[in-house]
Amino acid sequence: MAVTVMAVGACSVFVPLDDPPPNRIGLDWASSVYELEGFAYKPSELGQPLYVSPNPSTPPAGLVVVPSDDRKIRGLDAANGHVLWELETRGPNVARPVAVGEDLIIGSSDGHVYRIHQRNGKPIWVSEHPGKGGVLSTPTVHGGRIFVTSIDNRITALDFETGALVWDKRRPHASDFTVTGQAGATIVGNTVVTGFSDGQLVAYAVSDGATEWSVDLSGGKAEFVDVDTTPVLVDDVLVAGSYRRGLYGLDPKTGDIKWLMKGEAFGTPAMIEDLIYVPQATGRILAIQPRDGSIRWIARFASEWATTPAVTRKYVLAPVGDSLAVIERGSGRTLTRFDDLRGVKGTPDAAFGTAYLIANSGTVYALGVY
Q1: pLDDT at position 162, please?
Q2: What is the pLDDT of residue 42?
Q3: Contact 27, 7 (CB under 8 A)
Q4: Are 241 and 266 in contact (CB under 8 A)?
Q5: Cβ contacts of residue 277 below 8 Å, gap of 6+?
Q6: What pLDDT band is residue 40 in, cutting at 50, 70 and 90?
Q7: 237-242 and 11-16 as β-strands: parallel, antiparallel, unpaired?
Q8: Is 85 exposed, middle or buried (0-12, 13-18, 19+ CB in 10 A)?
Q9: What CA–CA distance (Å, rounded) separates 325 from 338?
Q10: Is the separation of the CB atoms in 273 and 290 below 8 Å?
Q11: What is the average pLDDT across 323-331?
């Protein structure tokens, strides 16, 4: 029978579910990187780890870079979870880091961007704070520039070498009632595309921030129309969502709408091969063909909140409710769920048969998912 691994400290308990997974899914290691405060009732750790492939300046098994709620970024040995270095920031950290050569680009909720060394976590530079909002989405690096979005409805372009401001654009909030979040940035040709809380999806010129096109995805609604999903480009379709209106497929060159899947609270999709896997806050994970918006399958989880999954060759690893659901990618069948009694909220990273995640408990886990 399938199992859910529930680990507390160094102990592991296996709870049976329904059917056996076709391959091994198990706990490789667990590393407690920070201790919860004693009064923490419902902790929520949204940090998104990054696995970095081996190179001469990292351990043989590679590096796991973990942003966390305790205002630190850590580099862990991917072989055993030992902490190799720590970087303290001025706010909690959520966004997945980006590896560029032997450096890392970090966006923090303190509103700053950090360029640091992979080998020791020491800063090369720390950017100025261009606005008043924190960075929650993964930075995008392209053409010698770093593009970051922040929750004050802003997109900023920084110089990769120095961290200096190149340009920034901001839109006003259309309503006092918005969803706390901000879409990340996606490169489409010579433009960078992101969404805003007023329901607009906008393509800016990479060079100088000039607006190339803008499309209103609010559907005429006035509240909760935030385009807070990071756009995903698949072949000739750009997929983005408006929180209240639904999920859109658009022409990436013009912003013209190709299809609309009505619904609320779609999250940022994960992509592999010719499908996207889209979470929904109503407790669903959908496998969708981006060409026309047709649905391959839907996994339902009794109205539990779902966030962006990681996708492997065989599995969709989706934070749902208070656990990580392991879903068979071909069929949408849930095989098992992982929890350590404190819950899992943040999107994992998966590489070479291992998924890396940080749970609400402040513990980093490596799960074998073969």
Answers
A1: 97
A2: 73
A3: yes
A4: yes
A5: 269, 270, 271, 285, 286, 287, 288, 309, 311, 316, 318, 329
A6: low
A7: unpaired
A8: middle
A9: 7
A10: no
A11: 94
Q: What percent of the chain has pLDDT over 90?
A: 72
Exposure string over 12-30, b if 16+ CB within 10 A, otherwise e: eeeeeeeeebeeebebbbb
Q: Looking at the DSSP assignment, which residues form a beta bridge with residue 239?
A: 232, 249
38 has a pLDDT exceeding 60: no
d(CA 330, CA 328): 6
The predicted model scores a pTM of: 0.91
The pLDDT score that the predictor gives to residue 23 is 54
Kindly tell me if the per-residue pLDDT of 284 is higher than 60: yes
**Cα–chain center distance at 19:** 29
- Is residue 15 predicted with pLDDT exceeding 50? no
Residue 370: which of 345, 347, 353, 357 has the closest Cα? Answer: 353
Please enumerate, as own/partner, the contacts of 87-90 that have beta carbons within 8 Å and a separation of 24 or more: 87/114, 87/116, 87/121, 87/122, 87/123, 89/114
Q: What is the DSSP letter of 301?
A: -
The separation between the first and the last C-alpha atoms of the chain, rounded to the nearest angstrom, is 16
Distance (Å, rounded) from C-alpha 283 to C-alpha 193? 27
Residue 129 or residue 39, greater confidence: 129
Taking the C-alpha atoms of residue 308 and residue 336, their distance in angstroms, rounded to an integer, is 18
Q: Tell me how far apart the alpha carbons of residues 195 and 324 are, in angstroms, rounded to a whole number.
A: 28
What pLDDT, on the 0 to 100 scale, is given for residue 1?
35
Rg (CA), the chain: 20
Residues 310 and 355: their CA atoms lie apart, in Å, by 8
CA dist., res. 154 & res. 352, Å (int) = 36
Res. 25: pLDDT tops 70: yes
The shares of helix, strand and coil residues in the chain, as percent rounded to the nearest 5, are 0, 50, 50
Tell me, what amino acid is at 37?
A: E
Q: Which amino acid is at 107?
A: G
Phi, psi values for residue 193, rounded to 5°: -115, 135
Compare 21 and 305 and report the one with higher pLDDT. 305
Torsion of CA 57, 63, 146, 193, to 10 degrees: 150
| CB burial of residue 126 (10 Å; 0-12, 13-18, 19+) | middle
Distances (CA, A) of 108 to 40, 71, 115, 337, 346: 22, 9, 11, 29, 15
